[in-house]
Structures are given as C-alpha cells and as structure tokens.
Amino acid sequence: MKLSKKMQSAQLLDMNEELFKCPICSSGIEMVDHKQLVCNNMHTFDLAKTGYVNLAPQAHTTKYDRSLFEARAEVMGSGFFSPVLDKLCSIVADHVESIKQPVILDAGCGEGTHLSAIHSQMKPESVGIGLDLAKEGIAAASKAYPGIIWNVADLAAMPFQDAQIDVILNVLSPANYGEFNRLLKQGGKVVKVVPETGYLQELREAFYEGKPQKEETDPVDRFSEHFEDVETERITYKFALPEGLLAPLIRMTPLTWNAGDERVREVLSVGMNEITIDLRAIVGTRR
Ligand SMILES: C[S@@+](CC[C@H](N)C(=O)[O-])C[C@H]1O[C@@H](n2cnc3c(N)ncnc32)[C@H](O)[C@@H]1O
Ligand SMILES: [Zn+2]
C-alpha cells in the first residue's frame, strides 16, 4: 500500500527528530503519533496534509505568493537551471562522498526544485531538509517532492540543533552566516549562489533599460569573512526560451515586481528568444 505524503513525512521526521529543536524554547523535540512534533515543554507543531511542518513561531506574509512559486516551478522545470544544478550536484558530491549519511539543508529553498534535483543525485541514505519562510513555497515543495523534510521557518533562527548539517545550500536567497556556522558540522560546507551582472539581463533591458542591480558590498567579501577555503565559480550561459515561458519568467522574479501591467503586456507581445543566466557559486567551509 502506498503511504500518504503525511505518513511518509512523519516517518522521515521520526527517524531524524534529533536534528530538531523547538523554535520557541529550544528544547529537544519528538514526533508523536505520526502527526505532530512535540517539545519537552509541550509546544506542538502539526504536520500539514502534504507532510510539511510549520516551525515559524509567528505567521509571516511575504511577497512570495502561490502564483509566484507556481511560475518558479514552471521555469525551473524547463531545464532553465540545469547547468547550475549540474555544477551544484558535483560540488555537493565531492564533499559528501565519504560521509555515510549526509545531511543537506536548503535555506530559502522556495518551491524546492533545486533541493529535490540535488538530493535525488545523492546516496539514498542522504537526508534532505528544505526550509523557507514562505508557506506557499513549502506547501508546493511538499506536494511535489516527498522524501524530503520540508519546513516553514526563518533562516535567521532555524529550528535545528547545533552542528548537524553537512552542506547548506543558499540559492538566490538571503543568508544568515552566524546561523549557518552554528548548524554546520566541523568541516561542513556552505554553497551559496548569487546573481552576477548579466543575470536575466534581457529582462532588465526590457523593464529598466538594462540598469544593473548594484549590490552595496561584494557578496564574496562578505562570505569570506565567515568561512574558510572560499572558492567561487561563475556559471554563464544563454537559455533559449521555449514558447510560453516568458510569462512565468516575468512573474517569478523580484526584478519585475514593480513593473506595470501595461509594460508587462508590451514585453510579452514583443516576445523574447533567449535569456542570460549569469550566476556565481561561492563555496566555503565552516570555521
Ligand atoms: C528568489 S527566491 C529563491 C528561491 C529558491 N532558492 C530558488 O532559487 O528558486 C528567495 C527565497 O528566499 C526566501 N526567504 C526570504 N527571507 C527568508 C527568511 N528570513 N527565511 C527563510 N526564507 C526566506 C523567500 O521566501 C524565497 O522563497
Ligand atoms: Zn518548546
């Protein structure tokens, strides 16, 4: 008999409950009756029907809503990020090769496609944990990708015990390096992906006459203040946009959030043949 998503997830949580701590009182937490996580002080967190658990102490509304994550899933499912994912898979594989049961956490995982793709290439015993503050992202991830622990939580105060994680992924999302160092095992790695100057340049040209989004400080410098043995690699290519993908591409990126409907219609009617992906992977080891 096929297990429900909730039951599958309850079993996963049961096997990995030692990774967690209560987001309210920091005490240990355990899976009870295949339906809720309960801490030593009786704070309880129910599993949703699709198996994710909400461990954010307060409800948050973010600009990342359901339609944005649907658009993101459509774009990411088109092969748009395949070369990036290949690179990330090989970085992760090199690090976890000799680890018996590696634990990988995606902090700011959105709708979960990247973590699912990377986790599926790892050894079967690997534990995947996806975390995002946007409930809609985690709900979509848990629906699409069972076999991974999905939770709603703030990456600045994550509901995990110290030194439990082998690899933290952080793709196009905010970071909290103090928290990342707390969670990583000795020798554990952070793999962060940041946009480079050409990232989605065709969209910036269409909406903002190509003005680059300027970061105030260099993300590599900031990263290097917190991690050892930092290496970076730029990943640049053009992706031929299949018919129908421009609308979800426009919808999924914060770049176009301030654009008016009229301009969006104009850009859609002109169309776009290809789009530039220009990213940097930054890898470092826990200090
Ligand atoms: C641009 S999206 C990237 C999502 C995914 N990594 C991807 O590449 O498709 C940024 C993500 O960061 C999440 N995020 C922002 N602040 C966060 C926080 N404090 N804690 C957890 N997630 C956060 C958002 O909800 C959103 O899903
Ligand atoms: Zn508690």
UniProtKB/TrEMBL annotation:
InterPro entries: 23S_rRNA_MeTrnsfrase_RlmA (IPR052939), Methyltransf_25 (IPR041698), RlmA_N (IPR048647), rRNA_m1G-MeTrfase_A_prd (IPR016718), SAM-dependent_MTases_sf (IPR029063). Residues 20-58 form the 23S rRNA (guanine(745)-N(1))-methyltransferase N-terminal domain. One of its GO terms (biological process) is methylation. Keywords: Methyltransferase, Transferase. One of its GO terms (molecular function) is methyltransferase activity. The keyword S-adenosyl-L-methionine does not apply. It holds the Pfam family Methyltransf_25. Residues 104-188 form the Methyltransferase domain. This is Methyltransferase domain-containing protein. It comes from Sporosarcina highlanderae.
